[in-house]
From TrEMBL:
GO terms for molecular function: catalytic activity; phosphopantetheine binding. This is Polyketide synthase modules and related proteins. Residues 195-465 form the AMP-dependent synthetase/ligase domain. Residues 1-175 form the Condensation domain. PANTHER family: NONRIBOSOMAL PEPTIDE SYNTHETASE, PLIPASTATIN SYNTHASE SUBUNIT B. It comes from uncultured Leptolyngbya sp. It holds the Pfam family Condensation.
Length: 482
């Protein structure tokens, strides 16, 4: 809102009339970032002239003309321009009476009032409701207003979008101090090399758990090596794309790791995808080898890739060497190609290199990765949250628990969290909200709960933080490695 004097200059003798004529009217200002400052100010002035015809209208009348429902305020802040020269007016009175040190106490019923007082210098004053604002916030607002006005004076011909708002200290804090997020990580290593190093450290630790089955780090490495040697015999090498269409299982992780050890990059193909989408992805990537399972072969669309079934071809795979294959891959080589949902049009393949994945899960500062953690592998393999779940666990010596391939109910998810004593969990925003509403007790054992993919409800976040003492990360961690 803005305060008007109610004393039009074209009314003779208006300045000598006694009475309170001021009124407060709502002001709607449109600020296009591309507009030039001087042009915008002229338009604003012309708008104010037009508004003057309504300066005697009461707020009740204005409220009735507007679409704002009764009971809701038209505005919660006002601007007052004090252009009445009190000192000069008193000095003109003459006589022997002298008045000094004039002070006025003003009060409004609005949470925020900006008062501008002209003179040799423009003085700005902010009056505020202490229940809505603190002193630090108001001081920051004043500094921003000062910076903004100084920017206008310095270059009044620039565009609005170029006006400065932050002080130099604030810019330094945002761009330098808060941006010191660099950490040392093994940027010269590939995913499979870091896994092999972990195998050397904890060969007998449990790496994977799936229902009543499990694999140690040594066992997982052995099976992945055998697959890698077989894939190399089929011509898979650096940046070679290998399709992976498997339900969630131990074989799925063996397939991922075996492809990387062979030097290739995996292309996740969700068995639940429509045939048309799978056909598009196979055609677009032109994979030469496709890892799958016998039960899915007939469901796959027509393609030219060489098929390897990890279940029925297992006997041939066990004949391969168990040694780590010599790697020609460097961190800049492809690790995988994952496709977008295609919700805005045609799905697009996103290529991710080894270094990006390593940056996501090694020596990070957004979550704790250690051998003491138990991760739950819940995300579809075609969703990049699975990158966080799988490699965040296996490259740090943790235990990875794989959910069954079907979409679990909330009760099944909660049961798995308790049964396997999961400590680190990633959920989509929608699933996070449902778990907080209906199964919040099942989140009690978590040490880290990460959620993202969409906007999270603040109320749900507060509820889980109050109910459980968990380390909370509201983010999309998978985006860090793209």
């Amino acid at each position: 809102g803005a305060t008007v004097s109610g004393r039009p200059t074209d009314l003779v003798g208006i300045e000598s009339m006694v009475g309170l004529f001021i009124n407060t009217l709502p002001i709607r200002v449109q600020a296009s970032p591309e507009a030039f400052i001087l042009d915008w100010l002229k338009q604003l002035q012309a708008q104010q002239v037009d508004v003057s015809q309504y300066e005697y209208s009461s707020l009740i009348q204005v409220q009735g003309w507007s679409d704002v429902p009764r009971g809701l305020p038209l505005f919660e802040s006002i601007v007052v321009f004090e252009n009445y020269p009190v000192d000069a007016s008193l000095q003109k009175q003459g006589g022997s009476l002298e008045i000094h040190n004039i002070r006025a106490v003003e009060r409004t019923n609005y949470p925020l009032t900006v008062v501008a007082e002209p003179g040799l210098e423009l003085c700005l004053q902010l009056n505020y409701d202490c229940r809505r604002f603190d002193g630090a916030t108001i001081s920051r607002m004043l500094r921003h207003l000062q910076t903004l006005l100084e920017g206008i004076v310095t270059n009044p011909r620039q565009r609005l979008k170029n006006l400065p708002l932050l002080t130099e200290q604030e810019r330094h804090t945002l761009l330098v101090e808060w941006n010191k997020t660099q950490t040392e990580y093994p940027f010269d290593k590939c995913i499979h090399q870091l896994f092999e190093a972990q195998v050397e450290q904890t060969p007998n630790a449990v790496a994977l758990v799936f229902q009543d089955q499990q694999l140690t780090y040594h066992e997982l490495n052995t099976r992945a090596n055998q697959l890698a040697h077989h894939l190399r015999s089929l011509g898979v090498g650096p940046d070679g794309l290998v399709g992976l269409c498997l339900e969630r299982s131990l074989e799925m992780v063996v397939g991922l790791l075996g492809i990387l050890k062979a030097g290739g990059a995996y292309v996740p193909l969700d068995p639940a995808y429509p045939s048309e989408r799978l056909a598009f992805m196979l055609e677009d990537t032109q994979v030469e080898v496709l890892l799958t399972q016998q039960s899915l072969v007939e469901k796959l669309p027509s393609h030219q890739a060489r098929v390897v079934c990890l279940d029925t071809d297992s006997e041939a795979l066990t004949q391969q060497s168990e040694e780590n294959p010599k790697s020609e891959v460097i961190p800049d080589h492809l690790a995988y190609v994952m496709y977008t949902s295609g919700s805005t049009g045609r799905p697009k393949g996103v290529s991710v290199i080894h270094r990006g994945v390593v940056r996501l899960v090694k020596q990070t500062n957004y979550a704790s990765f250690s051998a003491e953690e138990v991760f739950l592998q819940l995300a579809p393999i075609s969703f990049d949250a699975s990158t966080f779940e799988i490699w965040g666990s296996l490259l740090n010596g943790a235990r990875l628990v794989l959910m069954p391939p079907h979409t679990p109910s909330l009760q099944e998810l909660g049961q798995a969290l308790k049964q396997y004593q999961v400590t680190t969990l990633w959920l989509t925003a929608g699933l996070f909200h449902l778990m907080v509403d209906e199964q919040i007790e099942d989140l009690k054992g978590l040490r880290q709960l990460l959620a993202g993919g969409d906007v999270l409800s603040v109320g749900h976040v507060k509820k889980v933080l109050i109910y459980h003492q968990v380390k909370q990360s509201i983010r999309e961690p998978q985006r860090r490695h793209l």
